[in-house]
Amino acid sequence: MVAFEHILPMDIEKESFRIIGAELSRRHIVLSDDKADIVMRVIHTTADFDYALTLAFSEGFFEKARSVLENSPHIVTDTNMALSGINKKSLSKLGGKGHCFMADDDVAKKAKDNSVTRAYVSMEKAFSEKAASFPDAPLVFAVGNAPTALLSLCNLMQKGFLPQVVIGVPVGFVNVEASKELLEQMCTEHGVPFIINKGLKGGSTVAAAICNALLYKTLGSRD
């Protein structure tokens, strides 16, 4: 008979992080303090320790991201799944809101008319919505599914529309690695803080996990 360890519900996450920390130690993987919370929450979400080696951060990422998150950020995702996974209570405490424009009728029409993906157009709409509705709020983009969303952001940056933070972790096989490499190049060129995951792995749950780790870390730094 399989033996189950009885753990109180409120202790499950704590025990999970203890196990993750022990396994990282066993693998001789040491994470810096500014990255540990983010990497460990992604591992907690995926049970995939490869992320300890493949998540890549721009220099000074957290300090720059924290200054953004402390100023009522609006987080834009490329899927409703990613948006649903973001802790809205924590985001609200920072004065922020979340958005996903993928299902909007005007996005679908423009995408069809221009033979591009809805993800591509949804990134453009984010900047239009910002100008019209929340001009003073910083934009944080969390992309976990569509490489074309990253391509759109790169094109927008070339035109002078700069996000304040980009999380680029799309998953898949077509243009996934190229889109992450281009994003890294463009963000570095324009001084935009970023996180990407090297290789093919990623996903909406990973994007949401990174957002939540950043929100919790920012809120924690206030205490």
Task: Please count the helical segments.
Answer: 11
Strands of the largest sheet, in order across it? 1-6-5-4-2-3
Q: What Rg, in angstroms, do the CA atoms define?
A: 18 Å
The chain-level mean pLDDT equals 94
- Please mark out the parts with pLDDT under 50 across 5 or more consecutive residues, or reply none: none
**Helix content percent band:** 55-70%
Order of helices and strands: HHHEHEHHEHHEHEHEH
Structural class estimated from helices and strands:
alpha/beta
Tell me the overall shape. globular
The first-to-last residue Cα distance is 46 Å
- The total strand number stands at 6
- How much strand? 5-15%
The description of the largest β-sheet is:
6 strands, mixed
Overall description:
- This protein is an alpha/beta fold and 223 residues long.
- It is 57% helix and 10% strand.
- The chain has eleven helices and six strands.
- It has helices spanning 12-26, 33-46, 51-54, 61-69, 80-85, 88-93, 105-114, 118-133, 147-158, 176-190, 204-222, and strands spanning 55-57, 74-77, 97-99, 139-143, 165-168, 194-197.
- The protein has a six-stranded mixed beta sheet, sandwiched between helices.
- The radius of gyration is 18 Å and the shape is globular.
- It starts with 11 loop residues before the first helix and ends with a helix.
- The mean pLDDT is 94.
